[in-house]
Queue: 3 jobs
Job 1
Amino acid sequence: MKSGLLNIDDDKMLLQLMRDDCRTAFDTLYQKYWKLVLNTGYKRLKDLSKAEDVAQDVFTQLWLRRKDVVVKNVSAYLFTAVRNCTFTLLAKENRYIPINDLLLELKADRASADAQILLKEFMKAYEAMVDALPNQQKTIFKMRYHQELTTDEIAVQLQLSPKTVRNHLGRAITTLRASLMMAYILVFF
C-alpha cells in the first residue's frame, strides 16, 4: 500500500467510499487509473501536455460528480470520459467545425443581397441532404441539432442506447460534412 492510499482493490467499494466524501478512496482510484487515462488521452491527442489536462479534467469531474454518477465499470467510464473530454478540447481548438457553427458563420459572412440568395440555395441543399439521410439518422440528427437535445435525451425518447444514438449521429455528420463542403464549394465559388 502506498502512503495515503487505501488497501482496497474493489472499485465498487472505492466508489461508495468516494460518494461518502472519502478523499483517500478517490486518491486510490486516481492512482490506480491515472496512467490508463493519460495513455488513452495521449493516443487521441498525440500531445502529452494536453493529455495531462484531459486526464486532470476527467478525474476532477469524477470527484465533482461523485454523488450523482453511477459507475458500473470504472475503466469503461473513464475511457468514455476521456473520449468526451478530448472531443470537447478539439472543438475548443477548432480542429473541426460543428455544422451549426458552419451555418452561423455562413450567415454572418454573407450580408449582401447576392450572398443572401446563395445562402438560401445552400440552406435548401442542406435541408435536402438532411432529408436524404436514412430515417433513423435523420431523426436523430434533427433531434440533436434542430431541437438541441442531448444524446441521452434522444436515447430515452427513441428507446435506444446512447451508444446507438452516437453511432447514428456520427454517420449522419460524416455524410453531411462531406456533402455540405461540396455544396458550399458549388454554391459560393
Job 2
Amino acid sequence: MKPRRAKVSVTRVLAGVAGLALMGVGASSLLDVPDLMDVLVWLGGALVLHDAFIAPLVLLAGLVLVRGGVRGPVRGALLVAGALTAVALPVLLRPGPRANSSVLPLDYPRNWLLTLLTVATVTALVLAAKGFSRHRRRPPS
C-alpha cells in the first residue's frame, strides 16, 4: 500500500506565509522599543497568566458548569472573556485620573463590561439556536 500524500491547500499556504510575515513585522517592531526588557517581562507575565491561571480556570469551569452539547460554546465564551480580561487588566488595575487625559480617553472598565456582556449574549444566542435546532429535529411522538 502506498502512503497517502496530504494535500496542502493554497489557502493554508497563504495563511502560513501571511502569519510568518506578520511575525517578522512584530519581531522587527521589538527592535525599536526603548525598554525591551519591560516588554519581555510583560509578554512573559501574560504567558504565565494565561497558562497558569486563565486556561485551567476556563477548562475547569467548562467541565463543571456544563454537560453535553453546550460545553464547546461555553468554553469558547469563557476563553474569550479571559483573554479580554487579560488585555484589559493594566487599565482595570490602574483606575483614576491621568496627568494626560489623551492617554486613555475612553471609559475602559465600562467598555470591558459591555464587551463581556456581548460575549455572554452571543453565547446565549448560539446555545438557544442549538437547542431550537435540536428541538426541531425530533420527530413527533
Job 3
Amino acid sequence: MKTILALGAGRSSSVLISYLLRQGEANGWKILIGDISQDAARDRIGRAIVGEAIAFDITQEEASKQSIARADVVISLLPAHFHPMVAQHCLALGKHLLTASYVSDEMMALHDAAKAKGLLFLNECGLDPGIDHMSAMQVIDKIKNSGGTLVSFESFTGGLIAPETDPENPWRYKFTWNSRNVVMAGQSTAKYIQNGTYRYIPYQQLFKRITPVSVPGYGEYEGYANRDSLKYIDTYKLQGIQTMLRGTLRNKGFCSAWNVLVQLGCCDDTYPMEGVDRMTHRSFIDAFADADKTVSLEEKLMRTFSLAKDGPELTRLRWSGLLDDEPVGLTSGTPAQILEYILNKKWKLKPADNDLIVMWHRFVYEQSGKRREIQASLVARGEDAVHTAMAKTVGLPLGIAAKLLLQGKIKRTGVVIPVDAEFYTPVLQELKTLGVELTETEK
C-alpha cells in the first residue's frame, strides 16, 4: 500500500487533507497526518478509514525518522525553516518531498543528492509561489510557441476577504494564512526590472512604492514588490525581458496604513520590549512615537506621517484597536510579536467569514511586428473560516502533485519548482475541474 504523509494540520491544511483522503479512498492509499497536536490531526481526518493521525515533532529526530520511513511521499506544511530538516530525513530514507514554500539555499544544496537517488523534492507548489508559476508558464509557453517574444511580465497575488465579509473593516483584510508571515512580510530588499532598468526597494520604502492593479469584475487593487523577481527571469526562461515584477496584492489603501506601522518600527522582530505585561495597545504604539507629552498620540502620528485627523490611515489604525487602552495581554514579546497578537484580535477569521484569493498576470509581447497584451486573472472564494480559499489554492496543487507522483506521471527528480508542462498541464487541468481557473483576456 502506498502512503502519503502530510505534516501540519494547521490553518492551510484543511482542503489538502480532504483531497488526500478522497484520493486515498479512490486509490487504496494510506494517508498519514502528522502534527505536534495529534488531536488536531484527528480532527482533520474525521471518520476517514484511510487516514491515521500521528504525533509529529520534527525536533524529535528519531521519532521523525520513524514516521517519515512509513511514507512514499511526504508533504510538508510545517513552517518553512523546518523544511530542510524534513528534507534531510527524506534524502536519507529515500522519500519524495513536496512543499509550498520558496526554495531555500539549504534545500537547493540537496539537488544533486536527491537527483542521484531518483527523488523529487518539489517546492513552490502552492498558491504564490505555485499556481502563479504554473499559470504564468502556461501562457508564456503559448506565446513563445506562437512565435511571440515577451517584453514584460507582471504578476500579483493576494489573500484578501470577500466583499460581504466584515463590511466595516476598512483594511478589507484578515489573516487567512500564517499571521507571523504577514507581519514580517517584505523585510528583505525587493529586486525587479522595469523598462530595462534594475530597481531595488528597501523595506522602509516598500509600502510607499506600489503598483495599481485593475482586476476585471472585481475592482482596483494595489501591489507591492515581492522579494527577488530577478531570479525568475532564468526560471521562466525570459532572458532579455524588459520588465519582470512579481508582487503581493492588497485592497486600495492598505499599504499606506501598513507603512505607518513599518516606519514606526512595529514590525521589528530583533529585540524584546520592556514592560510588556503592563502594556496597552495604545502604549505599544506610543512607545515608538516621539516623547512629546504635550500632544496626543494621534497628533504625534499626524505630525510625523503627515496624516489627516479623519484620514484613511488613522481610520484603519483606530479600527484595529491599535489606539485603544485595552491591555495587550502578553507578558513578553518583540514588537512584531506584540503587533501580531493585537491584530489577531480583529483580523482573525470568524466562523462564517469568507476569504478571497485574487491573482493577476499581465503579459506584453511582440509578434509579427505588433505589440500585444494578455491579462489573466483568477479569483477563488472560501467556503468558511476552515475551508478557505487560501487553504484550497495552497493545498490542492500539492495534493494533485502527490497523486500524479504516486501514479508515475511525474518523472522529474532533484530540487525543482513546477514551471514545466509536465507539472503545470495536469495540475491546472485538475484545478479547473475543482473551480480554480484563470480567465484570459487578450488586447
